[in-house]
Amino acid sequence: MSQLHSPALNTAFKAARRAGDNTLRAANNLLEFKPDSKAFNDFAAEIRSHAAHTITEILREAYPDHRIISADNGGELTGKGHEWLIAPLEGESDYLHGSAHYAVAIALRHKGILQDALVFSPERNELYTASRGKGAWLNGRRLRVSARIEAANALVAAGFDRENDSLLNGLLTRTAGVRCEGAAVLDFCAVAAGRRDGLVRFNLHPCQAAAGALLVQEAGGIVTDAEGNEHWLDKGEAFAANPKILAQLLHIAAQHA
């Protein structure tokens, strides 16, 4: 069964594949520059900009009337019409350090409702897709969130800053472990695929969260903000898991607020 359930996903795949392949090839050229040098930083910025341009060009050619929003272009969500949320190089720091933990993420909203999502991991050649009501998929395989029911046995993907030290300590003592990696969207993918049992993330741009969140939802999980509400995209924070684990994660968060 094809995992590209809509024309929008086919277009997103074309854009993500081209941008991701270009980014993968460019990684070899980073070795020519001294880390932290101006030339290195300029080239890194050029890679991200080129990926964004590639995606935008393909999306606009297919859908000239749609809005395209990224962290770099300063666009804001309106909840009106069609809106593409793109993260051309999610996990940029990992990419610049030679890690495979980065991805291209593209999501489509219509009148404020997420409809389609695609995440492409170039190094691992993993393609995650989801369409509303049609499930979540990884390279043609249907995804389901973890069936684990006890937080004490759960492995949680997380992203924190110093303001969340108390919650981090709470999770470390009441779960099986916490994993903090760079690319937020790949943490959502890991939850959708059952590789992680839950997710706790703060300081998210909507473009970092949208595609991954729909994947989790279509894989049978729930995404909320720290208070258990549906404002996660606006507030820039997300808790994601199956219903039983999510309830326990939210309880831990409430105790460490």
Concise description?
With 257 residues, the protein is an alpha+beta fold. Helices cover 39% and strands 23% of the residues. The chain has a seven-stranded mixed sheet, sandwiched between helices.
Q: What is the tally of helical segments?
A: 8
What is the C-alpha radius of gyration, as a whole number of Å? 18 Å
Count structural domains.
2
Query: Topology as H/E string?
Result: HHEEHEEEEEEHEHEHEHEH
Distance between the termini: 44 Å
DSSP strand (E) fraction?
Answer: 15-25%
CATH topology of the largest domain: Fructose-1,6-Bisphosphatase, Chain A, domain 1
Q: Structural class, please? A: alpha+beta
What do the pLDDT scores average to? 94
User: What is the makeup of the main sheet?
Assistant: 7 strands, mixed
Q: What is the CATH domain class of the largest domain?
A: Alpha Beta
Enumerate the spans where pLDDT stays under 50 for 5 or more consecutive residues. none
CATH superfamily of the largest domain: Fructose-1,6-Bisphosphatase, subunit A, domain 1
What percent of residues adopt helix (DSSP H or I)? 25-40%
Structure description:
The chain is 39% helix and 23% strand. The protein has two domains: 136 residues, Fructose-1,6-Bisphosphatase, subunit A, domain 1 (Fructose-1,6-Bisphosphatase, Chain A, domain 1, 2-Layer Sandwich), CATH 3.30.540; 105 residues, 3-Layer(aba) Sandwich (D-Maltodextrin-Binding Protein, domain 2). The radius of gyration is 18 Å and the shape is globular. α5 runs parallel beside α6. The protein has 257 residues and is of the alpha+beta class. The strands form two sheets. A seven-stranded mixed beta sheet has the order 1-2-3-4-5-6-7, with helices on both faces. 44% of the residues are buried.
